[in-house]
Amino acid sequence: MEIREGIISDIEGITRVHIGSWKSTYKEILSDDYLQGLSFEKGKKSWERFFQDKNNKVIVSLNEGKEVIGFASFGPDKDKKHNYENQLYGIYILEEYQRKGIGRQMIEKVIEKMKNNRTSSMIVWVLKDNQSYKFYEHLGGKKVIEDDIKIDGKTLKKVGYGFDNVGDILNRL
Predict the structure, then answer these.
(1) What is the block-wise mean pLDDT of the chain (173 residues), using blocks of 10 residues?
(2) The domain containing residue 144 runs over which residues?
(3) For position 8, which CATH number holds?
């Protein structure tokens, strides 16, 4: 297992994990038609744009075959309404690699990068129906806001978990 900063040549692997994770994580929340319609080409283009912004960062997890099996993306807080310097845009891990400590290892690298940039606070948004909210609560995240998001023609609730000092997360890993 290797965990390192993502590079442009990881885009296809990141896209594969992103789509695969959505299909497994959101199968109870979003329709099969929506999930089956996720486009690899559109996803890849989106990740190419993501990498063009030097403020955006990705940590990837690779298996023994050097294939991307998970990633964590982060950068500046896009909303800026809640006084957090950073936003964890998401952590995605292929279903067969979940619950093996990979998320904890990646969040550790994310925090290291944030601290190296001399930033300390972070927000992460999670769909309320997604069980991963428990991970962020375990790390010490506090619910700071709820909002609506429209996906697949449905209005869903999303929850913002705030961390005033990302260094505190290390004590909870």
Answers:
(1) 96 98 94 96 97 96 97 91 90 95 94 87 94 91 94 94 91 82
(2) 2-170
(3) 3.40.630.30
pLDDT of residue 82: 77
Q: Please report the pLDDT score of residue 118 as a whole number.
A: 84
* DSSP β-bridge partners for residue 164: none
3-state secondary structure of 152: coil
pLDDT at 157: 96
Number of domains in the chain: 1
- How crowded is residue 154: how many other Cβ atoms within 10 Å of its Cβ? 11
**Residue 97 CA from chain centroid, whole number:** 15
d(CA 109, CA 117): 13
The CA-atom distances, in angstroms, between 92 and each of 18, 70, 88, 164 are 6, 5, 11, 23
Name residue 86's amino acid.
N
What whole-number distance in Å separates Cα of residue 16 and Cα of residue 39? Answer: 10
